[in-house]
Amino acid sequence: MFKRFKQVFAVLFVLSAVLASVPAISANDSAFKTNMDGWSGMESTWNVTDDGYVDGAEQSNDDIALSDVYVDGTKDFTYTVHVKNTGGYGVGLVMGVKDKSTRDNALSTCLKYIVDPDNVHYAKNYLESGAVQSSVLGAVPCADRGLTGVSEYSLGVVYDADSGKAVFMLNGAPLHKATYDDTEALKGYLGLVAHGASIIATEAYYYEESASLKTNLTGIQGLDSSWVETPAGYMDGGEQSIDDIAVSDISFDGSKDFTYTVKLTKIAGYGAGLVLGVKDPSSRDEALKNYVYFIADPGTVYYKIFTDGVDGGPNGKGWSDLGYATVPNTYTLQAEYDAAAAVLSLYLNDELVIEINDAAAVVSGNIGFFAHDADVCILEAHYEIAGSSGSAGFDTNLEGWKGLDSTWTETDSGYKDGPEQTVNDFAVSNKQVDLTKNFTYTVKVKKTNGYGAGLVLGVKDISSRDNAMKNFIHFIADPSNVYYEVFTDGTGGGTYGAAHGVADLTEYTLSVKYDASKGVASFYFNDTIVSTLEDKDALSGYIGVYAHDANVYILSANYTESGSGSQPETDPGIINPGSGDSMSISAIAAVIVIGMFTAIRFTEKKKAERI
What we know:
Blueprint: H1 2-20, E1 33-34, E2 40-41, E3 47-48, E4 53-54, E5 63-71, E6 77-97, H2 103-108, E7 110-115, E8 119-128, E9 131-141, E10 152-160, E11 165-170, E12 173-174, H3 183-186, E13 188-207, E14 214-215, E15 221-222, E16 228-230, E17 233-235, E18 244-252, E19 258-278, H4 284-287, E20 291-296, E21 300-307, E22 310-311, E23 315-318, E24 330-338, E25 343-348, E26 351-356, H5 360-363, E27 365-385, E28 395-396, E29 402-403, E30 409-411, E31 414-416, E32 425-432, E33 439-459, H6 465-468, E34 472-477, E35 482-488, E36 491-498, E37 507-515, E38 520-525, E39 528-533, H7 536-539, E40 542-561, H8 585-610
Helix pairs in contact: 1-8
């Protein structure tokens, strides 16, 4: 029996090693790719074929299929579908279905977003006096989006829970600049719709996230124009048509190398891109006197330098000269400056377009974005100075930093809190403290305004801000006191600290020093002990930083164990709550081995009984 067990174990050991080296195969290998469950036609036999998910023959108008995914309006989400109209009027997606018990009930209250022969539009179905009414809420002519005669496209909706706004997407770009803010109408089940047409859907995906602007720029604002953050990105305002400009509080002086990169989608119109060297950002009129823009229009990618309001003329290359047969709506522009040579190199999608010599004076000033008689959505914007990756002001030996439902960004001034949250604004690292060792966690804070800021530890669940706030410790300084507070199941346990004359301080250092032999953590403010805590359960968890109704820059955040000062180690095997990580194949093989061993023992026992 033992010999047989060894043989089985050897086979399974080899099998587990082989399987562990093979990538997982998707459970969804059909022509209809989706991460959504429960798909079913409403009184219509939708079927998955070799081409995709195809509508049934029973309904001619408003033939819908729904999933089990229900949107409740409390979380960011992105819903996208890829569909093909194989004949008829319009096809697209449906959402906000309140009741899917019958087709009539489903259609009585919902939102439909479709492409018909003339327009891309979204409409709301609602009940009035017992009858279903439909109202078109937004529409763009197909000709304006290059869809004349096109039968296949991607449609989507991106929603931001904090603002309650949604943006309707077409082929990966915003349909138009308008946002939709009727959260109640968005709540409900998600699905597909064929409106007097036949449809083939090849993709349908739902994710609990929105796009928003990814940037390390700070202080961005439109000049005499209401540029606005949307779930899809940063969009220009409606007040200006030509020369619509937004600037940040980041500026260059021409003495250091830098790179400034902007990725954007031109929704409609003429040209869009980036600006540099804005000498006076106090108003639009002043900004437009001295600056340089680098933009792409339908025919050319080029720059212009303006001096005292005088246009220096365009310099650049045509799209065809750069190897493009068609002009993309989404592209990346980059300005790279060599301080020693005083040369500014301008790139489109990583390809050099043109260089500007003697550029020190040209680049000196603020940086930002530019829309030239166009509707634009800025997707990403990052800068780097002299190899600092835009984060010279944030000194840390921790990794995996992220804001929780808040876009904390690394800047030259430090790690800056996001604009989305006021009270309880978290950013966390991927480090969990090791309570078997002595450790010191030290954070240096620069508070620019507001109430309190500091550090957090003992965060049990970093999958979301709401989950993080259930169980954690914050240690902060406010205008009157320095204190820590332990939160258990969302309830604070009272503050422990003292007044330390912090009202006028803008910069200070907070530390937690843990003695593993005693199980005691000591809390320090500028090297002065404030209080202690003996509670391993409360202390265990992730560490991070914290803004409590304040705007802050975190200048440093460093962690050392046993006084070694060594780089903290992060266990790659840790599974973050809500991450979706699962049991490894090797672990599964081990379970199989145990099962096989049990089966062998059972078989041997039966043989013995028969003898």
